Each structure stands twice: as structure tokens, then as C-alpha cells.
Amino acid sequence: IFQKWVNREISNFDYLIQLNTMAGRTYNDLAQYPVFPWILRDYTSEELDLNNPAVFRDLSKPIGCSVVFIKISFFRYENFEDPLGMIDKFHYGTHYSNAAGVMHYLIRVEPFTTLHIQLQSGRFDCADRQFHSIPATWQALMDNPNDVKELIPEFFYFPEFLENQNGFNLGQLQISKEMVNNVVLPKWAHSPEDFIYKHRKALESEYVSAHLHEWIDLIFGYKQRGPAAVEALNVFY
User: Fold this and answer.
1) Which CATH number covers residue 26?
2) In the prediction, which pLDDT does 91 show?
């Protein structure tokens, strides 16, 4: 399968799905749900230029390792000492993939809506903490060293999860007083279908094809643990 991918006989999407499966990740387990990378960092332009390397995220670094947070991650690792000696040093206290994160993204679609409500003791979480905007979600990653969520495969094929087709009352944002309804899309996407189309196109772009192996090393490869993980600022609690 690796050789097929190198020879471009299978797409980046298919290769990532296969890797997730081989790693024991499955749609049947929210705690081991398939994980996909954030691949873009431009969610504000009117047009998405896939020939411009500047629109893409740096796939060689963990998502929590933006330029601003490199020092924070490094400091946390260097200065962490568990008095009981039970917990190893880490750069991030949360994880790039977990059950709550999957429910967060898929809150508008059953059975995830019901699972989210159960997790939140019988009601929706407050509106400001919900997944309500793709540009805002990316900005939150850039502003918060404790948010290190990667994506799920649905961002590349399932436009329905971006729409509140069931008409759930997801509450009101505190500052703008706006009701949370459909997910707010980047300016360059004219509809959920258009977002999926362009996002998938970005995944199969020349830039991502040339750099995807760097992200795979972090999540599925030799930079997951040990000295290579420490050097890559890729150690999780």
C-alpha cells in the first residue's frame, strides 16, 4: 500500500484511511476514531489559491506547536516533574484525537448529538464552546496552547455535518448574540458542498502530497514516542 501511494496509484485520502485502519482506528470507537490532519491555514481569503504554499499548515509540526507556542511546550516539558514518578514528561496535557473532540465536530448529526448531550449531563454545552465556525476553530487552535485537536475524515467528504438539518437549538453566542446554527464556513467556500470539494482538492494538492509524510511520522510513525517525539515537540500526556 505504501508503494501504491508513493506511485500515486491511490489518493492521499485513501492512504490516510488505510493507515488509520492499520493503526486500529475505527468509526466504531469514539476513543480511537480515524484522525486526519488540518492541512490549511487560510480560512479568511475570498479565494483559495492551492498553488501558494503559504495557504497550507506546516505538516512537519504538531498542531499545538505554532510558532507562538513552541516555547510554552518546551517549557512545560522541561519543567514537568511528577512527585510520584508515575507520569512521564509531556508537551501537551490533552490529545489530538479523543471522543469528546469527535462529538464536538459531529454535534449536528445523530447519534453524536445524543452522545454529546449525555456527555454534558442532559443538555447541549454552552454555545461558545461548540463547533460553530471553521475560521474561529482554526483561530482558537492558534490562540490556545491547550487545544491540539486534529480533524476527522468527515471534513473531506461529508457536507451534512456542517448543516443543522435537524434544527437543534444550539444556543446563542455570548458576545455577538448570534444563534448557533449551520457551521460558519471560510470565505472561499460558498456552501458546505463547496467547502468539502475545495478541502478535498487541497488534501490531494501537490503541496500536501509532498509533505503529508511529515505529519504521518508524527501520528503513525517514528516521531510518536521516544527521543524523536521529544525533539519534534510531540509528546502527549
Assistant:
1) 1.10.1540.10
2) 61
Say which residues have a Cβ less than 8 Å from residue 213's Cβ, sequence separation at least 6: none
Which of 61, 14, 18, 12 minimizes the C-alpha distance to 41? 61
| Own/partner long-range contacts of 177-183 (Cβ < 8 Å, ≥24 apart) | 180/127, 180/130, 180/132, 183/108, 183/131, 183/132, 183/133, 183/134
Residue in this structure with the C-alpha cell 504521518, named with its chain if needed: 216
Q: At 236, is the secondary structure helix, strand, or coil?
A: strand
Q: Which H or E run includes 200? A: helix 192-203
The structural domain count of the chain equals 1
Structural domain includes residue 218: yes
- Residue 220: which domain range? 1-41+57-232
Mean pLDDT for back-to-back runs of 10 residues, the chain (237 residues): 92 97 96 97 97 95 69 60 71 81 96 94 92 95 84 98 96 91 97 98 97 95 85 74
What pTM, to 2 d.p., does this model score? 0.91
User: 15 with 206: CB under 8 angstroms?
Assistant: no
